[in-house]
Amino acid sequence: MILSKFYCSADGSLHMKAQGHAGAGPKGQDLVCAGVSALTETLARAVERLYFQGMLRRCPRVELYEGNAEIIAAPKEPFRKEVAMVFWTVQNGIAELAASFPGNVTLEEALRF
Question: In the chain, which stretches have pLDDT less than 50?
Answer without folding.
Answer: none
